[in-house]
Automatic annotation (TrEMBL):
A biological process from GO: epigenetic regulation of gene expression
InterPro entries the UniProt entry points to: HDAC_classIV (IPR044150), HDACs (IPR000286), His_deacetylse_dom (IPR023801), His_deacetylse_dom_sf (IPR037138), Ureohydrolase_dom_sf (IPR023696)
Name this polypeptide is given: Acetoin utilization deacetylase AcuC
PANTHER family: HISTONE DEACETYLASE 12, HISTONE DEACETYLASE HDAC1-RELATED
Recorded superkingdom: Bacteria
Domain Histone deacetylase, first and last residues per copy: 22-292
SUPFAM superfamilies found in the cross-reference section: Arginase/deacetylase
Organism, as annotated: Hymenobacter mucosus
Family to which this protein belongs: Belongs to the histone deacetylase family.
Claim: Hydrolase is one of the keywords in the record: yes
Amino acid sequence: MLSIAWAPLYAHPLPANHRFPMLKYELLPEQLLREGIVPASAFFTPQPPPDASILLTHDPDYYRRLCHGELTHHEERATGFPWSPQLIEREVTILGGTLECARRALQHGVALNIAGGTHHAFRDRGEGFCLLNDQAAAANYLLAHAELGVRRILIVDLDVHQGNGTAAIFEHEPRVFTFSMHGARNYPHRKEHSSLDLPLPDNTDDATYLSLLGQTLPRLLAEHQPDFVFYLSGVDVLATDKLGHLALTREGCRQRDLLVLAACHQAGLPVVVCMGGGYSPRIADIVDAHVNTFRIAADLWT
């Protein structure tokens, strides 16, 4: 049974120049229902989590200033978003969606957030359209609640951009293995150190990408032996993406998702999937690639 976190405010309200990339948050649920991939009952409306759950990951002073609109001009500019109370509500709700997905994945094997994957957010600052790190917060929540039985976590970040905030947050946490496979020359220009980074040259194609991932992921599962997996399935790896610089086809992107999700399913590992980036000029390319992720999850777990 799939559980999918989605709220109308995922795509609203944001400045006009950010509206196009956010359209996928409106269109993706509609497409999933139109194609009959999931029933309406699969969706749940996430709620903002208690502050204590957020503060397991984020610096109290940063979070207070973020909530009250007290970031400096430099800090706000680094996030890419002008501050507003609605923006903070959106970010906190996205984080709450991933946290609730983690609880549901423990019950049902898999859960997906229509949004999330805010991997550029550090403990004490935001960057690159990421204010709070949802997967890091959910991972720390699982580790903080011993009764849930999660002792080791693997974060598989296959967005085209390095998960720099996630890498920095868990740099000294041996229970969380961070794996980022990303464009070498892409944002962020100053990379952090993940547990394993695989930087890729421009124009990396399906065959090269899938071969490298296929050699790496089984080894990580065997060596780290996680109890839980977070997967960031950004579709900015597509050749059509205007920011990505890699050369995957939509079929290659689908095979990537199948490789990751099938490995988790076969190993009996609960997994939370977040959508991450996607900036192709045609919104249909973005939505269709994301739909494939949900279709694969539905085929494996239902």
